[in-house]
Amino acid sequence: MVKTKHGIEPMQQNIKRWxxxxxRASAALALFAMSGLASGxxxxxxxxILNTAQVNYELDGTAVSQSSNTVxxxxxxVIDVATVLQSPQVTVAPGQTGAVLVFSITNxxxxxxxxxxxxxxxxxxxxxxxxxxxxTIFFDSDASGDLSAADTxxxxxxxxxxxxxxxxxxxxxxxxxxxxxxxxxxxxSTLRAxxxxxxxxxxxVFPGAGEGGADALAGASGGAAEATGEYIVSDVEIxxxxxxxxxxxxxxxxxxxxxxxNYTITVSVTGTGTATAASISDPxxxxxxxxxxxxxxxxxxxxxxxxxxxxxxxxxxxxGEVRVALGDLTQASGVQxxxxxxxxx
Length: 345
Known about the structure:
The protein is mainly beta. The protein has strands spanning about 35, 50-60, 60-75, 75-80, 80-85, 90, 100-105, 115-120, 130-140, 150-155, 160-165, 165-175, 185-195, 205, 215-220, 225-235, 235-245, 260-270, 275-285, 290, 295, 300, 310-315, 320-330, 335-345.
């Protein structure tokens, strides 16, 4: 199989400027947004496995060695891919434009493979169908994890990503949200990756299409995989942030055994709506122990018991968690601050 690598030209302006035709990009940047991931299926496709037997004997007291013919087996290419949603459910407003979902695509086969990408927004089980922007898919060219002007738009058939075995590519799917939607409406958007060599039931053979002229065959994924992200319509948005300060037994800030980690969680609300029955749950980190009596909300101490106040420490397996009920929150509620401490074991 002859594989061609199409390049990726970095985006020079914001996504609204990427309407219409786009130039073919430099081949040197085709793998710019990829990182290694040890997930392949074993020996690289096209590898020759050589084996020669030998017979040893004596002839009139003289040692003789004779070799057999060499048997060569070329490893076939297994075509496999994994598509994984990286972003949580995305909160959106009715009529919002440029709502982004983050996905990763990993070549889990044992040879380089080109993949075509498709976005599907017609899930019959959701409340509304997101509207794909043009372009819809962007490569994370600057490896920032966020859509930016440096990221490259995907043009089907022009810069289909060529992924080496075990390589991972981060991509963004960009949709607009329909106006006039009710709070709580959910819309789904699916990213699908398909092998350019072919797809089929696991074990389907593509003669001569693998590396080194060997056969290729569909792996467990059948050469195609998809993942689905969700948008939820809301007139309120919650932001949560967590910070930590370490105090060691010697008065410094080294995270040594016996040091205390003081955590601060802040929650803020924007928008015109109400976040009903908001609550915080935070598992105690492994290799630490919760410090009794340190849980507080907005500077007011909370008991560790599951009682009438807003907080509690639950000593559930394996190491427990803290929970704090925040109640109904609006923008007028202001920032809610939760603090507690653990000790490094």
